[in-house]
Design a protein that fits this description.
Layout lengths: L10 H8 L16 H14 L5 E9 L17 E9 L11 E9 L7 E3 L12 E3 L1 H22 L9 E4 L4 H11 L10 H4 L6 H11 L8 E8 L3 E8 L1
Parallel strand pairs: 6-7
Antiparallel strand pairs: 1-2, 3-8, 4-5, 7-8
Helix pairs in contact: 3-4
């Protein structure tokens, strides 16, 4: 999450307590809109390293608390939401036929932090601040970066775009979704889109979209799905998984 309940303790610690979970570890991870993909990669690596057997990964945001309602360039784009997945250790053959996460790919480039940021914080201004964004510049970087990281994920697994059953992208805005689909030559009818109903819910957008596509049975067991996101920082990443 980029919008925690408190500066500390971590929101995850409070969730852990409410769920009655007395064992294991709980911590927050902040990569804004890429946060869910970054958290999946972290949980996946914990499991593959033998340090965890089960992980609850949550993306949750209340962006309505950090919006400038006089700025039409941002206030109409973002929403509040939460979603989660459970990852469990299992046996596999180390091939794309395995179910579960096949690979994750993460990137960041701090040179562009001022294209999408919040203009406040407890250490810098003693305020919460508001979202500030240079939309056209974000669009340009988003399409290029997400197309590249998707290509990286496919190449690492010896796959082509046509092998993907569903793309579940971060629901930034429809222009970025369309631009990414076009650049990757992926039909838009194989892309899960919920931004028209949920808006951009940052780290919550991918699990919300995934839940909708699973619940309406578009995504079925055994299908190959690709999750991809880009957020402020910039941060961006992709996760290839067999559902």
């Amino acid at each position: 999450t980029a919008t925690p309940d408190h500066t500390f303790p971590a929101t995850s610690a409070r969730v852990q307590a409410r769920l009655g979970m007395t064992r294991g570890v709980a911590f927050d991870l902040q990569a804004v809109c890429s946060g869910f993909v970054f958290a999946l990669a972290t949980a996946d690596n914990f499991i593959k390293a033998g340090q965890a057997k089960t992980a609850l990964v949550i993306g949750a945001e209340t962006f309505s608390r950090i919006l400038d309602w006089q700025d039409r360039g941002t206030c109409v784009l973002f929403g509040d939401g939460a979603g989660a997945v459970v990852l469990k250790a299992g046996e596999g053959q180390g091939t794309p036929a395995d179910r579960g996460i096949l690979s994750t790919h993460l990137h960041s480039d701090g040179r562009h932090y001022d294209l999408l940021y919040v203009d406040g914080g407890p250490s810098s201004t003693k305020t919460t601040g508001f979202v500030r964004m240079k939309g056209n510049e974000v669009f340009r970087h988003a399409v290029v970066n997400m197309a590249e990281v998707v290509g990286e994920a496919l190449s690492a697994n010896g796959l082509q775009p046509g092998d993907i059953d569903w793309v579940v992208p971060h629901q930034a805005n429809i222009r970025i979704l369309d631009g990414t689909a076009k650049k990757l030559s992926i039909p838009k009818d194989r892309m899960v889109v919920t931004v028209d109903r949920h808006a951009n819910t940052s780290a919550a957008s991918i699990p919300l979209a995934l839940a909708e596509a699973v619940n309406d049975q578009r995504i079925k067991p055994g299908q190959l799905i690709l999750l991809e996101a880009m957020g402020g920082g910039f941060t961006w990443g992709a996760c290839l998984a067999r559902f």
